[in-house]
Write a structure and sequence with these properties.
This protein is an alpha/beta fold. It has twelve helices and 16 strands.
Length: 428
């Protein structure tokens, strides 16, 4: 018997996969007995925000992730196609049909017992997949605290955008650390006075995301960049855009400098320093692309400000979503360090694959890092100086080991991924 905590996207996916393997599952879901501030219904796999599961393009990271999941028999992907609505090249769904399909499959599965109550106490002696979302209940959060210690459980309310390194124009931007102290580890994007003032006024006038009631207490002690800017046109010049010590040798000091910090070991991703924000994604894209050197920036993760409970997964989990300290415990969903609907479901599917082996006494078998599912698992289990949840993106992949044209890279990634997954599944 396996406990699965939470009937969101990750939990529904995990419970169904295990049940299909002939494993008995107790699926705990506190809704509708106890609601979260974000959910509107008690339905399984409720889509709280957008109804879009994003791109279907196999050359896109999340599109490729969907293809991988379909190859494994994903319930979430079956439900999405059953409930799909017109959305161009993206996969969008009718929320009610989507949740209803999933709930019907789970409620009528002979190997799943649904228990509508709050799961409060984690027993490390029972095989359990904890599939908590960003609003995990206080009781569950407290139980995790007791087991893993508070310093390994985080509540972020602000994260800065992350940019794909290859999309930064290094003919304009340059590597340098302030006053040349230490290695030249930061990418610097210089602005003259006219560029800065245009950037500043665009930020001041930009549309912000409406703050939900449950977010009102999240932002104490945190300063969004646009709020800082509202204090005066020069405020940012003494904060995140301070140019002092960042001029190139023999050149005039820029009026302002936007810095980007390396975000992953392979230097494929950089976050914009000090740019926690509550602007809408469209506004973020417009304003970021006003920064010299970032005119063609590929934004891998937009800045967001909200409550999100997540583990310091690199210290706690291996690449099978298994606790290093308590082998019977697995984590999936946003608490494990993934971000997004499809990513959450994929983590639940991956964790369930590992648990199905674990309960049969078989060794765990991580998915290949050449697959998006495997690359995500590697990300959440690899030491990182500033670990935060991450969407699927091609920057997580290991580089191709042969010469190729950049225009063909995404196609090669997709081909390698599905080939690796096929080999993996044949060995199950």
């Amino acid at each position: 018997m396996v406990n699965v905590i939470g009937a969101g996207l990750a939990g529904s996916e995990a419970a169904y996969y295990l049940a299909q393997c002939g494993i008995k599952v107790r699926l705990y879901e506190m809704r509708p007995m106890k609601m979260t501030p974000a959910h509107q219904t008690g339905h399984f796999a409720e889509l709280v925000c957008s109804n879009s599961l994003r791109s279907n393009d196999i050359h896109n990271a999340v599109g490729l992730l969907k293809h991988e999941m379909m190859e494994i028999g994903s319930l979430i992907m079956r439900a999405a196609h059953h409930a799909s609505v017109p959305a161009g090249s993206s996969l969008a769904v009718d929320r009610a049909l989507f949740s209803g399909f999933i709930e019907d499959q789970i409620q009528h599965h002979s190997n799943i017992e649904v228990i509508h109550e709050e799961f409060k106490d984690i027993d490390p002696n029972q095989v359990t997949i904890i599939c908590a979302g960003p609003l995990a209940s206080e009781a569950l959060t407290s139980s995790i605290h007791e087991l893993f210690h508070q310093d390994h459980l985080h509540f972020f309310d602000a994260i800065a955008p992350i940019i794909e390194a290859s999309s930064i124009n290094m003919d304009i931007a340059y590597l340098k650390s302030r006053y040349d102290k230490g290695e030249a580890a930061y990418i610097n994007c210089p602005m003259n006075k006219e560029e800065y003032e245009a950037f500043y006024h665009a930020m001041i006038q930009a549309k912000k995301v409406e703050i939900k009631d449950f977010e009102n207490n999240v932002f104490e002690g945190c300063m969004p960049v646009e709020v800082m800017a509202e204090r005066g046109i020069d405020t940012l010049l003494f904060g995140p855009l301070k140019p002092v010590g960042l001029e190139l040798a023999g050149q005039k000091r820029p009026h302002a400098v936007v810095q980007l910090r390396q975000d992953d070991a392979s230097a494929s991703m950089y976050n914009i320093v000090g740019f926690q924000t509550h602007l809408t994604w469209d506004e973020q894209k417009k304003i970021i692309r006003m920064i010299p050197g970032l005119e063609q920036a590929n934004i891998l993760r937009y800045g967001v400000m909200h409550r999100n409970t997540y583990l310091e997964s690199p210290k706690m989990l291996n690449d099978c979503y298994q606790s290093k300290e308590y082998p019977n415990l697995f984590f999936a969903g946003q608490i494990s360090g993934v971000e997004g609907y499809v990513e959450s479901a994929a983590s639940g599917l991956n964790a369930a694959i590992q648990v199905s082996r674990y309960v049969q006494g078989l060794p765990l078998r991580p998915l290949p890092v050449e697959t998006m599912m495997g690359a995500m698992a590697k990300y959440i289990s690899t030491p990182n100086q500033s670990f935060v949840p991450m969407n699927a993106n091609l920057g997580l992949f290991p580089p191709l080991d042969f010469k190729h044209k950049k225009a063909n890279r995404k196609a090669f990634y997709a081909e390698r991924s599905l080939s690796s997954l096929k080999t993996y599944l044949e060995g199950m």
